[in-house]
Design brief:
alpha/beta, Arc Repressor Mutant, subunit A, D-Maltodextrin-Binding Protein, domain 2, seven-stranded mixed sheet, two-stranded antiparallel ribbon, 11 strands, 24% strand, disordered C terminus
Length: 312
């Protein structure tokens, strides 16, 4: 069964005459007659009674006509939708995410991206921040959220907001932490994320500046896990300022006031993908989701949100 056969069926039914229907469809009368015969053979029923006055629908034809008209309407709607899709951005993007979806506004980003670009398929991969940078640099990810300030010629970045880390410990250790010296803090058990993480890099730099390594080191897989383990009494760690303050207000954490370490939340993507439509589309979404914290786009540079990273 073909759509052109259904069009012929509907046209003949509406006009009641083979010749006039053929004229409407810009067909010869024998060609249209052959189409109707082929459709009747396909369906196994006679659709018209043929007489000197024209073509009259049989009972079977009357029952099937509304269905044929509906199929044609659905086909027209399908073509219309397809024409609307022409020119829309489509593609597959491998996107790295981090441990705290609320902090990176992941839900708002995904909601706006899928609303604006329904043909862009986003494959989310949870990453440790340093690994996210390396995967974007090496092409394993197309784009990612990232904590840190690493730079590389193969990576472009959009700074979204500053991040401050504080040294925090269990609330039960408050007397050990508030007013403690660096030597006393370093002597406590420490919790740190894997070496590839920005969290680990910051903590290592903190120790290097003071010439003292932690007495006891306990590994944990991400900063939310670390915050939970600190609250449970296992040790001290660098905790993101907002989480540290929440924990302090809840009576779970104590903050050591002598250290503040800063880094940046960024959205990064491979430099070579700068002009790819789906990447530019997501950059635009980032600009709208983070409009309250990032610099406005330059009038002279449509991609003004980007900062091309320097070679390491």
């Amino acid at each position: 069964m073909e759509l052109y056969q259904l069009r012929g069926f509907v046209a003949v039914a509406e006009l009641g005459h083979l010749t006039r229907a053929a004229e409407r469809l810009h067909l010869s009368q024998p060609a249209l007659s052959a189409q109707i015969k082929a459709l009747e053979d396909e369906l196994g029923v006679q659709l018209f009674s043929r007489g000197s006055a024209g073509m009259t629908l049989t009972p079977a034809g009357k029952r099937l006509l509304p269905d044929a008209a509906r199929v044609l309407e659905d086909a027209a709607a399908l073509h219309g939708k397809a024409r609307g899709i022409q020119g829309e951005i489509a593609g597959h993007v491998r996107l790295g995410t981090l441990a705290d979806p609320d902090f990176i506004r992941l839900a708002a980003f995904l909601a706006l991206a899928t609303e604006r670009f329904p043909l862009v398929e986003l494959e989310l991969q949870h990453e440790v921040s340093g690994a996210a940078f390396e995967k974007v640099r090496d092409g394993a990810l197309d784009a990612s959220f990232y904590y840190g300030d690493l730079v590389h010629a193969a990576v472009e970045s959009i700074p979204l907001r500053g991040i401050v880390y504080r040294v925090a410990g269990p609330a039960a250790w408050r007397d050990k932490i508030v007013g403690a010296s660096w030597e006393e803090i370093a002597a406590l058990p420490w919790l740190m994320a894997p070496p590839i993480s920005t969290h680990h890099v910051l903590a290592t730099a903190l120790f290097a500046e003071r010439g003292r390594a932690p007495a006891t080191l306990i590994g944990a897989d991400n900063e939310l896990v670390i915050r939970s383990l600190v609250a449970s009494g296992l040790g001290v760690a660098l905790v993101r300022d907002d989480l540290a303050r929440e924990g302090e207000a809840a009576g779970e954490l104590a903050i050591w006031a002598e250290a503040r370490l800063a880094t940046t939340l960024q959205f990064i993507h491979a430099s070579e993908k700068h002009e790819e439509p789906e990447i530019r589309a997501l950059v635009g979404v980032i600009g709208d989701v983070w409009h309250d914290t990032i610099a406005p786009r330059s009038a002279k540079a449509p991609a003004g949100l980007h900062r091309r990273a320097r070679a390491r």
